[in-house]
Amino acid sequence: MRLPSPAKLNLFLHITGQREDGYHELQTLFQFIDLCDTLDFSLTQNNRITISPEIEHLPTKDNLIYKAAELLIPFKSDPTFGVDILLEKQLPMGGGIGGGSSNAATTLLALNSLWECHLSLERLAEMGVTLGADIPIFVMGFSAFAEGVGEKLQKVEPDTPYFLLLKPNCHVATGQIFADKYLTRDTPPIRISHALKLDGHNDCLDVVIKHNPEVNEAYLWLKNHGDAKLTGTGACLFLAFDNLRDAERVKSVTPQKWQAWVCRGCNTSPTHDVLNQWIEQNRV
């Protein structure tokens, strides 16, 4: 099974409070983009989970892909089932676009079918949130207004513009941003109807650019071309366009020291599109 593993954008991100356990309450609007990693899953009967290539400075057992696969071991229809996973990485790490969470969710979805676990999407999402707050949105596979720590999802269908996605040459540590005493944690909650009309404010922006001068530089540059926004806790920034031509034009003048992609918003995850085709083709 070969599946795309897409990135996501936070079209806005409000921090509405902090719980006693340290997690932050938030409201956000998730949308997928058609920029993807790719994962190949080969079913084995050696009861082993292998991932290649190895990611530098990340032991296999700390990889979210491995941890996601481990969650499904008790539900395998055959205890001898294993899997060889090949990861083709395109999404940058530390960019706030959910690459690791997407890879973990794609693994849950793939192995649920390959290992014949027969778990519902809701159950997979419940299991996935124990590994990361963004995993449920990738498991469920639809654009959503999210609350709680990001796991309470209501399906929405925002516009699907073209985006210029920009990655400064730095890695933003989510923990550092959420631990900063100057992070706004009291934004008033809003209704879903209001969320769909927002201009894309991100409560993390000021803290991110304070700690990361490269993000600030890229943000100021991108603002010259439109309403620049930060996704998640960064480092990636994005700008929406009505047409592909304008997005490509701005990309063509982007300083080469930053990574840049032109992509399209998607209200259904590309993972689900391909997985559903696979299930249909392999239906007995």
Major β-sheet profile: 10 strands, mixed
Task: Please give the radius of gyration in angstroms.
Answer: 19 Å
Strand content: 25-35%
Encode the helix/strand succession as letters.
EEEHEHHHEEEHHHHEEHEH
Q: Can you identify the CATH class of the largest domain? A: Alpha Beta
Q: In terms of structural class, how would the helical and strand content be classed?
A: alpha+beta
State mean pLDDT (0 to 100 scale). 95
Quaternary: single chain
Please indicate the count of domains.
2
Q: What's the CATH topology label of the largest domain?
A: Ribosomal Protein S5, domain 2
3D shape:
globular
Fraction of helical residues: 25-40%
Count of individual helical segments: 10
List the uncertain runs.
Answer: none
Distance between the termini: 16 Å
CATH architecture of the largest domain: 2-Layer Sandwich
SSE blueprint and pairings:
Blueprint (H helix, E strand, L loop, with lengths): L1 E17 L5 E21 L4 E4 L11 H8 L10 E7 L10 H16 L6 H8 L6 H6 L3 E4 L4 E4 L6 E6 L6 H6 L12 H4 L9 H7 L1 H11 L5 E2 L6 E5 L2 H9 L6 E8 L3 H12 L3
Parallel strand pairs: 3-4
Antiparallel strand pairs: 1-2, 2-4, 2-5, 2-10, 5-6, 7-9, 7-10, 8-9
Helix pairs in contact: 1-2, 2-3, 7-8
Family: Belongs to the GHMP kinase family. IspE subfamily.
Catalytic activity: 4-CDP-2-C-methyl-D-erythritol + ATP = 4-CDP-2-C-methyl-D-erythritol 2-phosphate + ADP + H(+)
Protein name: 4-diphosphocytidyl-2-C-methyl-D-erythritol kinase
